[in-house]
């Protein structure tokens, strides 16, 4: 890869897990607005849930998630009371809807005790109806799952377990405060597999302190030996101005943007050699995995959890900091767990902010999602879906093609396709279609 491309297109940009992106959400969307939106949701609309558990029993220095370390279980148990209150409140407004997908994330939902896992499953089943093929995915920290919990999560109905690996190299692990052996990870995966949980995902990071091509190659070989169905290879987002604990990471041993680029390429190459299909910017799946299939059919989606097969029109976020997307727009809950709990336990929807979508923003959102998922935008589809807005958005697409001096895109008048050379920079290309993108780049992480 031409080095000047990396220099030119690696400026910080959003990850585009939503459009508009979360920094543009505002306090004008409050609990009354959200209650109105929930009441209006079409009963035929499929619904999925995201539940956030913002606690961990360790603090990894690289972590960019909304979470905090706890030494005792008490705060988790209290928080779960508020989560139960919010589940009841939302279902009282939206009715006993059929769920197509449930995702438990954090933080580490696997910190929950067997009793609380069981209670949460019962609460969700009494508030909602689970579709027979409902996908239930769980983010697992291999550090806090053991024999006492596997059966409870299996009874909960988990269909996909997603394990944080990050890196197996002991020097890298020490530099990010995340000790985790290969054996510990293998046992966590086996625990779910032998109980019939069908799909395993692993998260791996590049761009971590002390990572080199050699250490990454070894980690990738170990990861591949665990035969995950899916794999996410994320670039470490170093944002110490937002996540203070990342200051504990020694910046002098972070790979530079060229090294990051080479690491991402090496990881992708090794996974493709092992038979994985490359999906979007950072996902990989076995050819028989549902994500590989929907990607090939052109039906891949992108939401706050990254790439997804879930095309539900209504995603409800539950828990502190959780973000939902309804047909009318986005809503985000209060981030601070104390305030979240007070509000939910007092019978209030704990909304902090959000964004009501205008049709022009839906059109731009669709275009950015197409680019991020399929590396292509078809103007005929844009015109069919958004007849009133298509021309304004198409002007920006044509301008992107006209100003492309580096062969990152091809445009034949009816569709814009990102070239293999342009794919690593698709976030930067998406930013050029984003009218909100001004000079506030410092908020975002590196594009590569
Ligand atoms: C909520 S965590 C995973 C579950 C569990 N807590 C664990 O760590 O094993 C979700 C994933 O986000 C990714 N992640 C966290 N912080 C990140 C950062 N600063 N940059 C890129 N990815 C990050 C990690 O790969 C992590 O596995
Ligand atoms: S990476 Fe996972 S376990 Fe580590 S602090 Fe973040 S959420 Fe918790």
Distance between the termini: 13 Å
Profile the largest sheet: 9 strands, mixed
Lateral strand order in the biggest sheet: 9-10-8-7-6-5-4-1-13
- Overall number of strands: 19
**C-alpha geometry:** globular
Which structural class do the helices and strands define? alpha/beta
| CATH architectural designation of the largest domain | Alpha-Beta Horseshoe
Stretches with pLDDT under 50, minimum 5 residues: none
Helix content: 25-40%
Relative strand content: 15-25%
Count the DSSP helices.
15
Integer count of domains: 2
3D structure, described in words:
The protein has 15 helices and 19 strands. The strands form five sheets. It has a nine-stranded mixed sheet with strand order 9-10-8-7-6-5-4-1-13, sandwiched between helices. A three-stranded antiparallel sheet has the order 14-15-16, covered by helices on one side. With 448 residues, the protein is an alpha/beta fold. β4 (98-106), α4 (114-127) and β5 form a beta-alpha-beta unit. It folds into two domains: 3-318, tm_1862 like domain (pyruvate-formate lyase- activating enzyme); 359-437, Orthogonal Bundle (Arc Repressor Mutant, subunit A). The structure holds S-adenosylmethionine and iron/sulfur cluster (SF4). Iron/sulfur cluster (SF4) binds at residues 56, 58-60, 63, 65, 67, 106-108, 141, 164.
